[in-house]
Amino acid sequence: MSHDSNSLLKPGNLLLSAPFLQDENFVRSVILVCEHLDTGSFGLVVNKPSILTLGDLVNELAFVDAEVFVGGPVEQNTLHFIYFGEKRIEGSVSLGKALWWGGEFDQLVNLLKNQELEANQVRFFMGYSGWESGQLESEIEQETWIISQENLDLPALHFESEKIWKHFMKNMGGVYREQANYPLDPRLN
User: Fold this and answer.
1) Domain spanning 3-188: which superfamily?
2) In whole angstroms, how far apart are CA 66 and each of 117, 118, 119, 148, 165?
3) Chain centroid, CA 176 distance in Å
4) 60 CB contacts (<8 Å, ≥6 apart)?
5) Which pairs from 177-183 meet CB under 8 Å and 24+ separation?
6) Domain locations in the chain?
7) Which of 133, 153, 155, 146 is nearest to 174 (CA)?
8) Can you give the pLDDT of all 189 residues of the chain as single tens digits?
9) Residue 1 CA, distance from chain mean position
10) The 3-state secondary structure of 115-163, one letter per residue
11) Is 61 helix (H, G, I), strand (E, B) or coil?
């Protein structure tokens, strides 16, 4: 296990797909790393909307006007969430400044019902992105992923989905700023 990619990578980091990555699950994706352990890694694609709303999946949250995002290709029958603000839900994991992952779903439902948490402070995901031990490090070494140290914040999540990747690439500066404007297909240049 190489220490360079591993020491850089921690929960709360963002993985930006390389500009020419053609894997349909991850083209121009921004993945929030939620867990990075020796046994493997877990993340959520934050900029890939599904065609479903929260009400399609959870009847008791039909009143919440929220689209659901595709967190990744693994176990798309599972629902995950992140939220912004102070820690309000038992079992939530801190992913940086005012950003939390998961926790007790019933508590989340109650906070939303009582309007103690606004729908725009929460993002829901079907499925997740997962890597076995050493797999993510290997993909980083192969330059499939670019690690951004920038924290995900609420304003960035409210950009149009296809602009989120470009936003984080540009903010990294240098060669990444240039790559942010590359066409999806290099043959179109």
Assistant:
1) VC0467-like (3.40.1740.10)
2) 13, 10, 7, 27, 21
3) 19
4) 109
5) 179/19, 180/19, 182/19, 182/20
6) 3-188
7) 146
8) 333 445 578 999 999 999 988 888 899 999 999 999 999 999 999 999 999 999 999 999 999 989 999 999 999 999 999 999 999 999 999 998 899 999 999 999 999 999 999 999 999 999 999 999 999 999 999 999 999 988 888 888 888 888 999 999 999 999 999 999 888 766 655
9) 24
10) CCCCHHHEEEEEEEEEEECCHHHHHHHCCCEEEECCCCCHHHHCCCHHH
11) helix
Show the tokens assigned to 4.
């360079």
Amino acid (one-letter) located at 17: S
Tokens 């190489």, residue located:
2
- One-letter amino acid at 1 equals M
Q: How many residues belong to the chain?
A: 189
